Amino acid sequence: MSNEKPYVSYFRPAIDAMLGYTPGEQPKGTDVLKLNTNESPYPPAPGVRKMLADFDYERLRLYPDPMATEVRSEIAALFGLTYENVIAGNGSDDILNIAIRCFCDAERPVAFLDPSYSLYPTLAGLQGAKCIRIPLDSTDFTMPENLLELAEPANLLIITRPNAPTGNSFPKSTMAKICENFNGVVLIDEAYADFASDNCADFVKKYPNVIVARTFSKSRSLAGLRFGYAIAHKTMIDGLMKMKDSYNVSMLTQRLALASLWDRAYFTDCVAKIKVAREMLLLGLLDIGFKVVESETNFLFASPPDGDAATYFKKLREKNVIVRYFPGPVTGKYVRISIGTEQQVSRLFLLTRQIYS
Ligand SMILES: *Cc1c(COP(=O)(O)O)cnc(C)c1O
After folding, report:
1. How far apart are CA 136 and CA 166, in angstroms?
2. What is the pLDDT of residue 18?
3. Residue whose CB lies within 8 A of the most ligand 1 atoms, among 100, 214, 218, 225, for a mutation test
4. Dist. CA 332–CA 326, nearest whole Å
5. Relative orientation angle of helices 342-355 and 264-288, to the nearest 10 degrees
6. Whose alpha carbon is nearest atom 11 of ligand 1?
7. pLDDT digits (tens, 9 = 90+) for 164-202
8. CA dihedral 151, 123, 199, 344 (to 10 degrees)
């Protein structure tokens, strides 16, 4: 086709200028120990399995409830709220995307912590919004004293609490001050809150500018399902609902999310087991001479004794263990290890001890 019209880019310049998001690796093989994307090592609740087995496939002919009212009501009850305080999403990534599109554009930057979840700058890029990166302390990953000053030009401030990939949390009293004084929306990304000692869910009753986002991907073993939600003041939810895809949560997802919520005891048990394995691995790694950030999540951010995390990552990889490595001057000294079962954690620990013996 020699006379073919040359391809010129039809994309908005903001899209051409950005790189797409790089998700964590999802390996095909079954003999790899996959500790790289903070999934749960446990299956979803038995009630989810039953709901799936009993689901009448013929119902898929129909559209789902566009408002996901039943599952929103069930979530609201967990927090003493009503369904009008809840928005459901296709994963909490959907919620983050909705928020950035609602509150940010070329004149309205988004502020977030650095290091933090690498999806935020991607979503900002798609929206043509500037990013304000708020650097965490490079040794203990605490927030800077002047956070509010740095975030001031932003219309949306995202605080990941506990943070990823570092695993640490921030004092709730500091969070309250930020929500009280920030002149815009504060979105608290609580993807890991179920593994933490406290959370900020009660803020939505006090602060009309606060959104708290959660996911079923980590603590509820449902990363493949894609379900997340946010709670906020009714007026805030009403606005966010305008931005969502009309049927953003599938019928099957709504049913299975409900089943997961109904199975309270199983959920609590899984979270407890992961916390035990987390403490076990923490002690083991400290014993070998690792530097480990105090974690309130289902992962550890750990730096090997020689600080050469790239080599540690590679050596684990050679032994079919996949953890997550984020290159960079600060994050490059660490790997992020998702907490598996006690058995999986032991396997990782034994390999690590071999590597550093
Ligand atoms: C995993 C994660 C999410 C996204 O979860 P999904 O519900 O799977 O989209 C959001 N924020 C942070 C910080 C995460 O680690």
Report:
1. 10
2. 86
3. 218
4. 6
5. 10
6. 191
7. 999 999 999 999 999 999 999 999 999 999 999 999 999
8. -130
Instruction: Give the distance from CA 209 to its chain's centroid.
Output: 21
pLDDT at residue 1 is higher than 60: no
The Cα 205–Cα 232 span in angstroms is 8
Task: Return d(Cα 317, Cα 324) in angstroms, integer.
Answer: 10
The percent of residues above 70 in pLDDT, for the chain, comes to: 99
Centre of ligand 1 from the C-alpha of residue 215, in Å: 6
Pocket of ligand 1 (CB under 6 A): 91-93, 117, 160, 164, 189, 191, 215, 217, 223, 228
User: Distance between CA atoms of 61 and 348, rounded to whole angstroms?
Assistant: 46
CA distance 199 to 192: 10
pLDDT at 30 over 80: no
Mean pLDDT of 62-78: 98
The separation between CA 44 and the C-alpha centre of its own chain, rounded to angstroms, equals 18
In 3D space, the residue among 189, 193, 252 whose CA is nearest the CA of residue 225 turns out to be: 252
By alpha-carbon position, which residue is closest to atom 12 of ligand 1? 191
Q: Please say whether the beta carbons of 89 and 68 come within 8 A.
A: no
Residue 84 has pLDDT above 90, yes or no: yes
Q: Which of 190, 212, 214, 215 to mutate to test the pocket of ligand 1 (most atoms within 8 A of CB)?
A: 215
pTM equals 0.96
Residues 110-153: pLDDT tens digits? Answer: 999 999 999 999 999 999 999 999 999 999 999 999 999 999 99
> For a substitution probing ligand 1, which of 112, 117, 296 has the most ligand atoms within 8 Å of its CB?
117
